[in-house]
Write a structure and sequence with these properties.
There is one protein chain. The chain is of the alpha+beta class and 124 residues long. The chain is built from four helices and seven strands; from the N terminus they run αββαββαββαβ. The strands form two sheets. A five-stranded mixed sheet has the order 5-6-4-3-7, covered by helices on one side. A two-stranded antiparallel sheet has the order 1-2.
Length: 124
């Protein structure tokens, strides 16, 4: 791991190229860091979509989370939008996890199975 000084010394802007990626030091337009991270995330999945209900850290409010969907970020947002519309509620996509407000595990399980995913209900 680089030291703090090495991290702070990194080039973040160049008059020649504009903004640069702090990780690979290439211009942002040529940077492939995000695409590589997304490909690694998808490769690490086991093919099972897990649906769980979470309340911790949410002041007692229940949220249904969906993990393990083997899609890239844009397709994940599109899927989340359709699932939120199906449930009639709000939600978000954070770090490859779809969060949908409320307890909609049964509806989401049926919907994802109809789309061809192998689904498991996890947690309480």
């Amino acid at each position: 791991m680089p030291s703090l000084q090495d991290q702070l010394r990194g080039l973040v802007y160049s008059t020649e190229h504009g903004e640069t990626c702090p990780d690979c030091r290439r211009p942002v337009a040529e940077c492939e860091c995000r695409a590589r991270e997304e490909a690694e995330r998808i490769a690490a999945l086991d093919g099972i979509v897990r649906i769980r209900r979470e309340t911790s850290g949410r002041k007692g409010k229940g949220v249904t989370t969906i993990q393990g969907v083997p899609l890239d970020a844009e397709a994940l947002k599109t899927l989340a939008k359709s699932l939120k519309k199906r449930c009639g509620t709000g939600g978000a996509v954070k770090d490859g996890v779809i969060e949908i407000q409320g307890d909609h595990r049964d509806v989401l399980k049926r919907e994802l199975e109809s789309l061809g995913y192998k689904v498991k209900l996890a947690g309480g």
